[in-house]
Amino acid sequence: MKQEVNFIKCNPTQNMTILVKTNYSVEEYKHVASKIMSYDSVHAEQVGFYRKTYK
Which pLDDT belongs to residue 42? Predict the structure, then answer.
């Protein structure tokens, strides 16, 4: 199943990084990150996830 993912792609110090803005549960991070880092996708060296925290 294909899913739309909102992200920012940046290249700090020649290290391709994806910052995912779409809200995922922590349990989904590993699967989503591995799909995004694959060569047939966005191809990045690392993936980070935005999380909203409420106080």
Answer: 80
